[in-house]
Amino acid sequence: KAGVTQTPRYLIKTRGQQVTLSCSPISGHRSVSWYQQTPGQGLQFLFEYFSETQRNKGNFPGRFSGRQFSNSRSEMNVSTLELGDSALYLCASSPQTGGIGNTEAFFGQGTRLTVV
Amino acid sequence: GESVGLHLPTLSVQEGDNSIINCAYSNSASDYFIWYKQESGKGPQFIIDIRSNMDKRQGQRVTVLLNKTVKHLSLQIAATQPGDSAVYFCAERFGDTDKLIFGTGTRLQVFP
Question: Which of A26, B40, B76, B105 could form a disulfide with B1 if both were Cys (CB 3.0 to 4.6 A apart)?
Answer without folding.
Answer: B40
